[in-house]
């Protein structure tokens, strides 16, 4: 593999200031600081299980709520993954994973198609896990999929919202790992581009 699959993307608005660095061919090392403990835990799990090295420095208007910071983190992560993938030559393109966590079971299937779409089936019972709003899980993945140009189908069932959210992030990690592995030199599309 001759091309470096690394990227660094920053986004600064009146609400957030976020910089994300990613290495798709890393070893799962992370340094995450968003100011939201549970969200840090989820991004760390994503890094560890995808094998991507990930650095996230994010500050935002948490005195309002976590919405802007989580949304913009999804946007910046999606942009960083898209930049690191380049023309997507040689990638497997498709990835899927089924990950249990205690009583919870998450399933994620993705297509790095250049077309963004999210279908997510997840019911949460609690409004928050720690200081993280469970509503933001779907919004994070919507923001990521849109910015990365990735089609994602996700579902989770279970009783514990911590377990369900973590199972989703881990299944997302494994699906991404499988979809971004280099399998050859071709672009896997009848169109010739992804």
TrEMBL record:
Catalytic function, reaction form: D-erythro-1-(imidazol-4-yl)glycerol 3-phosphate = 3-(imidazol-4-yl)-2-oxopropyl phosphate + H2O
SUPFAM superfamilies reported for this sequence: Ribosomal protein S5 domain 2-like
GO MF assignments: imidazoleglycerol-phosphate dehydratase activity
Predominant subcellular localization, coarse grouping: cytoplasm
Gene Ontology biological-process entries: L-histidine biosynthetic process
EC number(s) given by UniProt: 4.2.1.19
Alphabetized UniProt keyword annotations: Amino-acid biosynthesis, Cytoplasm, Histidine biosynthesis, Lyase
Keyword flag Amino-acid biosynthesis: yes
Gene3D superfamilies: Imidazole glycerol phosphate dehydratase, domain 1
Any one GO cellular component localisation term in the record: cytoplasm
Compartments (UniProt record): Cytoplasm
EC top class, as a word: lyase
Pathway: Amino-acid biosynthesis; L-histidine biosynthesis; L-histidine from 5-phospho-alpha-D-ribose 1-diphosphate: step 6/9
PANTHER family reported in the protein's UniProt record: IMIDAZOLEGLYCEROL-PHOSPHATE DEHYDRATASE, IMIDAZOLEGLYCEROL-PHOSPHATE DEHYDRATASE HIS7
Similarity comment: family membership: Belongs to the imidazoleglycerol-phosphate dehydratase family.
Protein name, UniProt field: Imidazoleglycerol-phosphate dehydratase
Gene this chain is encoded by: hisB
């Amino acid at each position: 593999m001759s091309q470096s699959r690394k990227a660094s993307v920053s986004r600064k608005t009146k609400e957030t200031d976020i910089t994300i660095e990613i290495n798709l061919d890393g070893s799962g090392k992370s340094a995450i600081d968003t100011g939201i403990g549970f969200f840090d835990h989820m991004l760390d799990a994503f890094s560890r299980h995808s094998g991507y090295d990930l650095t996230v420095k994010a500050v935002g208007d948490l005195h309002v709520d976590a919405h802007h910071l989580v949304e913009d983190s999804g946007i910046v992560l999606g942009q960083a993954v898209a930049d690191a993938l380049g023309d997507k030559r040689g990638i497997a393109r498709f990835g899927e994973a089924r990950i249990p966590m205690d009583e919870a079971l998450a399933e994620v299937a993705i297509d790095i198609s250049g077309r963004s779409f999210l279908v997510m089936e997840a019911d949460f019972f609690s409004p928050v896990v720690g200081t993280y709003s469970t509503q933001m899980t779907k919004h994070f993945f919507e923001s990521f999929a849109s910015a990365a140009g990735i089609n994602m189908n996700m579902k989770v069932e279970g009783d514990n919202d911590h377990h369900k959210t973590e199972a989703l992030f881990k299944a997302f990690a494994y699906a991404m790992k499988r979809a971004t592995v280099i399998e050859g030199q071709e672009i896997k599309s009848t169109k010739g581009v992804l």
